Amino acid sequence: MEIFGIPTQALFGQLLIGLINGSFYALLSLGLAVIFGLLNIINFTHGAQYMMGAFCAYFLFTRLGIGYWWALAIAPLAVGLVGMVIERLMLARLYKLDHLYGLLLTFGLALIIQGLFPNEYGTSEIPYAMPQELSGGRNLGFMFLPNYRAWVILASIVMCLATWFVIEKTRLGSYLRAATENPALVQAFGINVPRMITLTYGFGVALAAFAGVMAAPIYQVNPLMGADLIIVVFAVVVIGGMGSIMGSIVTGFALGLIEGLTKVFYPEASNTVIFIIMAIVLMIKPAGLFGTQR
Predict the structure, then answer these.
(1) What is the pTM of this model?
(2) Cβ neighbours around 224 below 10 Å, total
(3) Backbone angles phi, psi at 28, to 5 degrees
């Protein structure tokens, strides 16, 4: 069976790949949106922290024998704690300065982190086994759906929607948003704003590490796995709107699907289609699809 002259299995296979890529785009851009929207920091270290999540899971397995499920809980916490230390020691000194200073600092940190790992592990990919419970797959008739891929998509959707709900619909989220607008007023109500900012940055970093752990069985562990991806993720954030939580989620999944379809109908443009869309969006709506002018 064919659709538009394309075999059905090939078409849906590329859509599945697009959904998987979109899952990681959404998770990573969500972390960036949380950090920028609530802290006004452009976190260029995000790709390196995504890589750190994958390596943390690898270390837990090879050194301590800790499997995938525990690593999925421990690695984001560990990398998030490292992020909180970075925020307290370095980023906290830059909040009153121009965004460019935070961008330069996080860019420099990313280069340092990405330079340390290849010295020890090279640039080759290191296998990381998926959990036995999620091996195999299901034949849906029109395509074969691997269980682990389905888990990645479902876990990403749940994590993204849970984050959106907490920030947009709960009292904690209202405190976070208020702290970005008027920290002195929020502090007057007895809320420790610096601690809240540190925890928020740690959470955004933990989202990147969570994505890294889930990506490890699919893309394998590689010191440079976040270097190219972070450029695409920044494009996703810009298209969705800097700081827009829902914009990052919707745009991440949508652009993953568009990228997958482009590989079917016009493969030559698959590596540039997201940047073409970004250029068009910026010409029409500079604040992004879901963003607002600051």
Answers:
(1) 0.91
(2) 15
(3) -70, -45
Write down the H helix ranges in the chain: 8-39, 46-64, 68-89, 99-121, 147-169, 171-181, 183-188, 193-219, 229-240, 245-265, 273-284
Cα 264 off chain centre by: 25
User: In this predicted structure, what is the pLDDT of residue 271?
Assistant: 84
Q: How far apart are CA 144 and CA 139, in angstroms?
A: 5
Residue pair 226/25 in contact by the 8 Å Cβ criterion: no
DSSP state of 224: T
pLDDT at 54 over 90: yes
pLDDT band per the 50, 70, 90 thresholds, residue 4: low
Q: Are 254 and 12 in contact (CB under 8 A)?
A: no
Residue 122's Cβ-count burial label (10 Å; 0-12, 13-18, 19+) is exposed
Write the CA distances from 220 to 15, 74, 123, 289, integer angstroms.
Answer: 21, 19, 12, 33
Sheet strands (E) in 17-149: 137-139, 144-146
Amino acid at 166: V
